Amino acid sequence: MNSIDLEFILVLLIIISLILILLNKINSSKENKSILWLNKQARSFLPILLIVLFLRSFLAEPFRIPSGSMLPTLLIGDYILVNKYEYGIRMPLTKTKIFEVSKPQRGDVIVFRYPGNEKINFIKRVIGIPGDKIKYLNKKLYVNELEYKKQKKDTHKYIDDFERQELEIFEEDDNHKIYNTLNDNMSPSNDDEFLVPDNQYFVMGDNRDHSSDSRYWGFVPEKNLVGEAFLIWMNFNSKNFSMKYNRIGDTIK
């Protein structure tokens, strides 16, 4: 999920507003109408900028789903909200954690800065936490030698969005959460084993055979966490200009 660095823009606008207010105090001349006008705008917008920065940095941030790597849980065009404080309070821009809240659990759907390019945000499901041994064999998932239960499902509310008949829907149980995944019968299994290091996480897309995730580029460092995805607030597919109104307000499982 590519995104403009709105946080940087907000901080920059706040700094500019503060400078304009300070300049007006230094130059108390009532004759300079330009400075007076700029000062008035700065005073008006500064509280709004501070509120937006606070909400976005510490409470919740919106994101858009641009790909199908999280099908069937998230559809292309879903607009989601991400809880920014669930995995710790972090300073704007520097991302330095200043307060610990909780840590990701297996089954959580998380947004994080992609380790290969931290300007890009990815969304995946946590499969392994620090110390876990992960094994993916014949399209079955094992965590610490425990096989996750999979049950094939015949239907899905948005099956037309999957586009290919070879995709099969499964309900997967990790003993913490139950969620849906996709398997592609035309794709190889890509079997492998992984040991999750300290302060890192192993993630996978629910669209198991069409997801760029920890199987290919490695683990997610704790410092790259953005937050936990928890709500779909809108769906709009720009490819066919369609909306799914009944997805509004759906929680992310």
Number of strands: 17
Q: State the helix count.
A: 3
CATH architecture of the largest domain: Ribbon
Shape: elongated
Which percent bin holds the helix content?
A: 10-25%
The CATH C-level class name of the largest domain: Mainly Beta
Write the layout of secondary structure elements.
Layout lengths: L5 H21 L6 H27 E5 L13 E6 L5 E2 L6 E3 L9 E5 L7 E8 L4 E5 L2 E4 L2 E2 L1 E5 L13 E7 L4 E7 L7 E4 L4 E5 L9 H4 L2 E2 L3 E13 L4 E2 L10
Antiparallel strand pairs: 1-2, 2-16, 3-4, 5-6, 5-16, 6-14, 7-8, 7-13, 8-9, 10-11, 11-12, 14-15, 16-17
Helix pairs in contact: 1-2
Describe this structure as you would to a colleague.
The protein has 253 residues and is of the alpha+beta class. It folds into two domains: 54 residues; 183 residues, Umud Fragment, subunit A. The two termini are 19 Å apart. 21% of the residues lie in helices and 34% in strands. The chain is elongated.
Features:
four-stranded antiparallel sheet, 253 residues, elongated, eight-stranded antiparallel sheet, 2 domains, single chain, Umud Fragment, subunit A, alpha+beta
Describe what is shown at a glance.
This protein has 253 residues and is an alpha+beta fold. It contains three helices and 17 strands.
